[in-house]
Amino acid sequence: MPSFSLTVNGKKHTVDVDPETPLLWVLRDSIGLTGTKYGCGQGYCGSCTVHVDGEALRSCTMAIESLAGKKVTTIEGLSPNSNHPVQQAWIAVDVPQCGYCQPGQIMAAAALLSEKSSPSDEDIEASMNLICRCGTYNRIREAVHVASGATKKKELGQKGGK
Amino acid sequence: MNAILNRRDFIKVSSVAGSGLILGFHLPTKENEAFRAEPAVEFFPNAFVKIDPSGTVTISVAKSEMGQGVRTSLPMIVAEELDADWSKVRIEQADAHPTKYGSQSTGGSFSVRGSWQMLRQAGATAREMLLAAAALSWNVDKSSCRADKGFVVHSSGRKLSYGELADAAGKLSVPTSVQLKDNKDFKILGKELPKLDTPEKVNGSAIFGTDVRVKGMLFASIEKCPVFGGKVKSFDATKAKAVSGVKDVVSIENGVAVVANSTYAAFKGREALSVTWDEGQWANQNSASIKKMFEDAVKQKGSVEDYDGDAEEAFASAATKVEAVYEVPFAAHATMEPMNCTAHVQNDRCEIWAPTQAPQGAQNEAARILGLPLDKITVHVTLLGGGFGRRLNSDYVQDAVKVSKAVNAPVQVIWKREDDMQHDFYRPATYNVMRGGLDKNGWPVAWLHRVAGPSSRGLVVGGSTPQYKIPNFLIDSHIKETGVPIGAWRSVGPSQNGWVVESFIDELAFAAKKDPFEFRRQLLTKSPRLKRALEVAAEKSGWPARTTQSGGGKPLAKGIGRGIAAVEAFGSSIAQVAEVSVETDGTVKIHRIVAAVDCGPVVNPNTIRAQLESAVAYAMSAALKDEITIDKGRTVQSNFHDYSMPMMSEMPKVEVHIIPSTEAVGGIGEPGLPPFAPAVCNAIFAATGKRIRRLPIRPEDLKKA
């Protein structure tokens, strides 16, 4: 079995697996990070979203052999104490219901905000095409705005305006 | 509500010094005939209160958390009567137990309403014991003490914390009757509280079924017969066993399990497997043959389900007659977390970790398969990555038990999305022949609903009786075996019958040339609670439907139609107004849903709103997206590309109005679904003049010619 090295949440790991093994299963079964979820295995749902060199990607369709030297961040490594603005916003808006898709949603939102600090509704809907079967979509959209600071600013602006 | 309860249901579980106060439930058992002789009352206790000397209040939750918020709402009920400091409340998920907690089944929107009285009693009992302990230590009368946010306070101003009192309280006898609070004195109930389990769900630490890790465990993926009811005839595991990581390949009657040291190796091994199936009796079944079976059946009278007056006679002599056929397809649950279970079978015992809505069902199934007594089967309930009724079944638990037994190791069986989609217990497809008669003033005098559907009567006919004042009605059914497994799908019977009834009543309103809201309102004489919900939804939405001329309603943008629907289900009354437009290519855009609900006393408005938002998304999948179709005895759809889900861009604005109520506590996980599809379809009719009579709503049915 060939050996692959990758950096996950700042820590270097070497795993001996089939080269085609998707990153998702390396994270969950070889490294023991179960926060990243299996939803469909085909890249449709996004529950398995992680950051690879800062970009939000679906780990269920990424073979380990394509990741040599890459830096992977999972939900467990997004912040040391759940204090990433997106996680804080998710708590403030009380987004999760069953919670299964939320690690993927949060990773996608964090990547979006690192590219666009004040996304519009359309930006959020276009980039966060992840499935939430509980239908927390309206709260996700709201939480992304909260995380971006946009909501807060708007409220202050309204008070200071008319 | 100010009931004095007088049941001797509580026991002190422990009075060991230093352990604090622990209260459990004492339930009727075979050894205790006195309890059994009591008149039958609804008895679904599911708490276990523990106060330790540090003041932490631990409440066991014996219902399964699947996103509906029971890990927050149930503790709130206990904490209210206990006058606990909410910041010191912790929860523990209860393992399955045959009797300790009553029914642990989590379904029917029954968790809060079924536990309400018992949990209040549990909290009040603990509170009374803490008060008594404080009174004793101060040598004062108990009536001069009051409970306040984790403390007992004496009229003199002295106070002791629950933590300080826990040990002494644990030594007292349990009071046989306790006074419950007046609803108006609630401090925690009715408050907007964040869910207790949100923090663990945003950092990856929440443990779902698939996240269970046990020392030495293996992973298994099962190839099941694609045809419903089929069995393994023979299999060749040579190539599968050659896949790196594969440890074993075992047959479990309805499938072949590949067991490996990782999930991916199990999947890979399964691809290399060769299985010959005995496909059984359903191998030629398909959606068209099922429809034909239903169409043929409804030509004859069916079994009478409910009736009043003589509907046939009244229909025959009606001034206006309306007839229509409504078709509902099979629908899949598609929980985000596919079915999975981890089991460790040993000689004389079995330990199970399952994301299940039926912990006791899982325990029973394992005991049956292994021939062990229930007390040798431990079932730990993990978080559920969605339930929606799917996880009331224990099929995936059976899988794990059988495979673990066969390979003599702890095993996690995990279904692929494709397995989950193709081996579901689907919402039944039904075929509904509707006939309605109006008198010369346009009021209904006859309602006839003949339904044909698969195998389970309750799932097919539930929620079909109209709530409206119709002097003559008749509902009859034909239940046919189709081979397709069916089950409870979030809101069950009302999920399809709500659509049929609320669409057809709209047709009658149109035929009567009456406003659909006003028509319903006039006919809801027997259901004041539902009438109120209807009125609130209409008022908040700016009804009437099209213009401001007839009643001062809010004008709608051009092309947008409003539709209304009202349903009583799961102990709650709910109405929804939908605002919808239809593009020239037939695409339906839902702009806004206004929901008004009376679910009795409010536990947590946050979770009520969340459940009604969620209901819209879940109902939307069945109303607007895909259907499950059958070909050659198997499910055609396999993953989210051909059974697609509503996405964020399709999600309408959802406004929730909770009606203040002193009615009995109602359910909230499901009632939001039934009114959605009819409100949307009625809005489509208002916008386009086209009536939708088969689901899902198809653009080709709405495309402009």
Set down the secondary structure blueprint:
The complex is a heterodimer of chains A (162) and B (705).
Chain A (H helix, E strand, L loop, with lengths): L2 E6 L2 E6 L6 H9 L17 E4 L2 E4 L12 E3 L11 H9 L8 H14 L5 H7 L9 H12 L1 H11 L2
Chain B lengths: L3 E2 L4 E5 L6 E5 L7 H4 L12 E3 L5 E5 L8 H13 L6 E5 L17 H28 L6 E4 L2 E4 L4 E3 H8 L8 E2 L18 H4 L16 E7 L6 E6 L1 H5 L3 E6 L3 E6 L2 H9 L2 E5 L8 H11 L5 E6 L2 H6 L3 E9 L11 E7 L2 E6 L4 H12 L6 E5 L13 H13 L3 E4 L2 H6 L7 E9 L5 E11 L2 H5 L10 E9 L11 H20 L4 H8 L4 H14 L18 E10 L2 E11 L5 E11 L6 H20 L5 E2 L2 E2 L17 E6 L17 H13 L10 H4 L3
Parallel strand pairs in B: 5-6, 11-21, 19-20, 23-24, 27-30
Antiparallel strand pairs in B: 1-10, 2-3, 3-4, 4-5, 7-8, 8-9, 11-14, 12-15, 13-14, 16-24, 17-22, 18-19, 18-21, 22-23, 25-26, 26-27, 28-29
Helix pairs in contact in B: 2-3, 3-4, 10-11, 14-18
Textual characterization of the structure:
The longest helix of chain A is centred in the last third of the chain and has 14 residues, at 102-115. Chain A has 6 helices and 5 strands, in the order E-E-H-E-E-E-H-H-H-H-H. Chain A has helices at residues 23-31, 85-93, 102-115, 121-127, 137-148, 150-160; strands at 3-8, 11-16, 49-52, 55-58, 71-73. By secondary structure, chain A is of the alpha+beta class. Chain A folds into 2 domains: 3-77, Ubiquitin-like (UB roll) (Roll), CATH 3.10.20.30; 85-160, [2Fe-2S]-binding domain (DNA polymerase, domain 1). Chain A has a 5-stranded mixed sheet, sandwiched between helices. Chain B folds into 3 domains: 4-195, Aldehyde Oxidoreductase, domain 4; 209-280 and 339-414, Aldehyde Oxidoreductase, domain 4 (2-Layer Sandwich), CATH 3.30.365.10; 288-330 and 427-702, Aldehyde oxidase/xanthine dehydrogenase, molybdopterin binding domain (Aldehyde Oxidoreductase, domain 4). In chain B, helix 2 packs parallel to helix 3, helix 10 packs parallel to helix 11 (395-407) and helix 14 packs parallel to helix 18. The longest helix of chain B has 28 residues, at 111-138. Mean pLDDT of chain B is 92; it is low at 1-9, 26-46 and 547-552. At the A-B interface, helix 1, helix 2, helix 3, helix 4 and helix 5 of A face helix 5, helix 7 and helix 17 of B.
